[in-house]
Amino acid sequence: MKYKSLLFGVTLAVLATACGKSPQTPKTDIPVYLDDNQPIEARVEDAFQRMTLDEKIAMVHAQSKFSSPGVPRLGIPEVWCTDGPHGIRTEVLWDEWEQAGWTNDSITAFPALSGLASTWDRDLSRLYGKSIGEEARYRNKSVLLGPGVNIYRFPLNGRNFEYMGEDPYLAGEMVVPYIEGVQANGVAVCVKHYALNNSEINRHIANTIVDDRTLYEIYLPAFKAAVQKGHAWSVMAAYNLYNNEHLCSNEVLLDKILRGEWGFDGVVISDWGGVHNTLQTARHGVDLEYGSWTDGLTMGKTNAYDNYYLAEPYKAAIGKGEIGTAELDARVKRILRMIFRTTMDRNRPFGSQTSPEHYAAARKIGAESIVLLKNDGDVLPLAAHPKRILVVGENAVKMMTVGGGSSSLKAKLEVSPLDGIKARYPDAEVVWERGYVGDVGGDYNGVSTGQDLRESRNPATLIADAVKAAREADYVIFIGGLNKAPQQDSEGEDRIQYGLPYGQDAVIEALAAATDKFVVVNISGNAVAMPWADKVPAIVQDWYLGTQAGNSLADVLSGDVNPSGHLPFTIPVSYDKNPVQTERQYPGTPRRSLIDGMPVLDMEYTEGIYVGYRWYDLHGGVLYPFGHGLSYTSFAFGEPRLDKQSMTENGSLTVTVPVTNTGAKTGATVVQLYITDVEASVDRPAKELKGFAKVMLEPGQKADVSFTIDKDALSFFDAAKHEWTAEKGSFQALVAASAQDIRGAVEFELR
Ligand code: BGC
After folding, report:
1. How many other β-carbons are positioned within 10 Å of the β-carbon of residue 48?
2. Pocket of ligand 1 (CB under 6 A)
3. Per-residue DSSP letters for 168-231?
4. Which residue of 13, 305, 457, 704 could cross-link 461, Cys pair, CB 3.0 to 4.6 Å?
């Protein structure tokens, strides 16, 4: 800026001399809000002072499906949002969900966040954030609607694939680098869905009843980390209710906790259509209202954007004195702050789209996310030169970047598992058999996969054909699981069964009986029942991996990449083992009263803090535990040791464990640290994850892995005192390869 002003001054001087006049003082008085040498807060204040009431009102609600106004008169740009969280959504029509039909908005589809979480790798999360942030920036977006960190409460939630698993510490650690990576591009994240949005059906009317301790220990930590450690510039308020108020106008969660206790200075954006009233929202709710209705242009005044709760009704309420302007002013300043952090940051980079780097990042993250659940007899990796590979299953060919709700994408490239395997084994005969018929659809809001998956054979014939082909193959790889169709892994509805749909169990059983060289690949964002687990030698948990899905899978099956993914959730043996069992817990019990003119269901989180392994540690029923993941090599953990036997409240303590690669291949494992409170005055889980590290070791290589913990790792939330408390006494530090594979323990005292 200074440089520009100087040049301007020189030019003026030259012009003035040429005209025979004496040089004038250069004009340097640009407004403070446009001067990027000024601190953001000064710019916010200056811009704010120049705005009229109408301009302020315009700024707090949408003007189209995904945008809201800036201040055109002052040159302050609009806010443009995009889904999120796995790639940049296709451009939609101004006022519709339908795609606009642009031809330059095909993007890189990155792995689903359930996959990112299963890498347990903070660096890969940063790479993910950086890459998707660059795509958002290239497309000129101000806000990326993601990442999602709602806790995986039970395996039927249709959106678990968009979240980061069952453990608040894991989700909190993984979300921070993602945020930093995105925001380094001058694009705000919008961390969603704040909070307690742990299932989909009835999401607009479900009122969560949860005790404070559970709220603070399980459902809030990842959001808190996003705000306080990741410095997220925006947060999305969820659809559901808590404490009898919709989240978009929730006094406790928004005002008291998010803005109050955590000091959040960014923008709270409503989930699309999540606002239901003017006054309560104006007093305590979101800063920015989106999606309240969708057809403002065709329906005229009744459904126009001016009629949003935070539009003319808000202005009228101010006019009538029902509410003052202080809340509006605070809102506008928060939005201005976000605009200065993003679009008005002249130094932000320009971004990029579908670059080779993004494809490489998607492939690497994908490969490192895949979890080897079982590998008896070392069926995997596949031999170097197999002659004939039979691939069975719809998910081997189905394009799954389309569908699933708002995270649906228009990917420029999607390599299917079958194509990935074919590309990796060009000399082998790779044959595909359908096996079962799942979802033959492939359209979402006008984006189409163009695949024709219709099938005329009946289930018995499909199985018979697959079994016949299996007898002639060196390897049989079944690739099935869930998909993005309604009632699978998809927004707006939940799964209706824990078991695999479409009769896949019968296909797997038949193939298992026909061959020993058999691998089952389950693609899903949720745990599924695996009643055949004992009968198949190798099981792989795969995810919706996007553009590079097939290449990432082939990398792992072939052994080009040694698997190092670890489960971010528990796979229980059967649905009746999971913590959510009663109607009271889910889907909830209807009430008589209305809230915001809508019926309400109470959904009680009676399982309390016993979510995920915290529950299974008490009740059993685990098929594959949280944190589990095998490798093509093996790792030995030595005795853990402490740097001291006790710590004080303000001190810290370091646990170190030597880890050795005892196998023949280079590979990575995830060393996990769990803490047990040996003596406590309250119920505490048997253990809680408080540290993890991914270490890559060559054969024979040994490394010391250290974790330094402080009081936070020992604390529980004391609801009566409303504070985190660590009680003096004994604790255990467990080093582990999964929640059920504890390799060593050391005891210490908090003095
Ligand atoms: C979803 C959000 C999404 C928004 C905009 C909502 O239905 O819950 O996650 O960001 O739509 O598409």
Report:
1. 18
2. 83-84, 145, 192, 271-272, 406
3. HHHHHHHHHHHHHHHHTTT-EEEEEEETT----TTTTTEEEE--HHHIIIIISHHHHHHHHTS-
4. 457
The 3-class secondary structure across 444-463, one letter per residue, is ECCEECCCCCCCCCCHHHHH
pLDDT tens figures, 595-633? 999 999 999 999 999 999 999 999 999 999 999 999 999
* Pairwise CA distance, residues 168 & 689, whole Å: 9
Nearest CA to ligand 1 atom 9: 406
**362-560 belongs to which CATH class?**
alpha beta
Q: How many CB atoms lie within 10 A of CB 604?
A: 18
In the residue annotation, 46 being an active-site residue is answered as no
Q: Domain residues of the chain, as ranges?
A: 8-22+31-96+107-341, 362-560, 633-750
CA angle 109–552–415, rounded 5-degree value:
55
Q: Cα(387)–Cα(389) distance, rounded to whole angstroms?
A: 7
For atom 3 of ligand 1, the residue with the nearest CA is 406
| Inter-CA distances, 230 with 65, 191, 209, 345, 428, Å | 27, 10, 28, 19, 47
Residue 544 DSSP one-character state:
-
Domain 8-22+31-96+107-341 has what CATH class? alpha beta
Q: For residue range 636-683, list pLDDT tens digits in order.
A: 999 999 999 999 999 999 999 999 999 999 999 999 999 999 999 999
Q: Single out the catalytic residue among 95, 271, 617, 677.
A: 271
